[in-house]
Amino acid sequence: MQTASSKRSPTDRPQGEAAGPCAPAGRLAGRVHSVFARCCNIELSGHTLLLPLLDAGLAAQPHAWTLHLPEGSDCRDWFSPGTPVLLNERGLTVGTLYLPRPDTRLPEHAFRVPAHRCAIGRIAAHLPALSLAIERAAAVRPATEWHAAHPLLRGPRDAYRTALARPDSLPEATAALVGLGCGLTPAGDDLLCGSLAVLAWRAPALFARAASAIRPQLATTSRVSGDYLLLACQAMFSPLLAALLQALADGDGPQARHALTALLAHGSSSGLDTAIGVVDTLHALGVPAWLAA
């Protein structure tokens, strides 16, 4: 872990910018769980969720801190897996590196679905453009990649979409998607996050049923992805996803396309898989097929 070097002054180190509404508080000890170029995950004893420390260039998350990293460095320069951690009311100590608690606490509403539902026809008017953008994004993905539009996921994806109209089969179809795919956040999990956001907005009873099927399966996926699914089961989502649904609720086509572009740029294929979950679920909930063709 690089806490000082000949190329940096003692004050040239990561600084916390903002904390999400679900970020832990109190006095907790733990360790660094995992480190990537733009994210360091902290595991704290007695706290269910990891605490992600995210590069400020990434979308904020409800359980994370966003960090400003010194120019020319990434998280791997400052954090190492297994390093002891101590959190208190003043900040976070990671080995010999101290990060004061961010002054800014992000509002909960930024991570929630829209409060108003609006007419389904109003949503459907914007779906052709969104569906085409998703189709184009999927078409340029590598043939070997397990994204949600890949033929290998067609069966479980179709079964889930069908089950949304047949709730008795929903628990089994939902559970089959958890952990399905590869990578830090498998495609099936990302699809479910997008779907849960739509269900929380449009169909609360189906949301509750799907969430109850997901919770017992969380141990079958990665720790990082399980955290995002757990938050989704509590109706807490990425602000990229919340912004897309808000634009649809407002009937703002240009803003919806802008929000979808930002979502599709998220991760390797996570944004694409999430967007597929959104559109699949809107269709399953009764968007007129001729409008969404």
From TrEMBL:
Which InterPro entries does this chain map to? AllH-like
| Species assigned in the record | Crenobacter caeni
Protein name from the UniProt record: DUF2877 domain-containing protein
- Recorded superkingdom: Bacteria
Map out region (Disordered) in residue numbers.
1-22
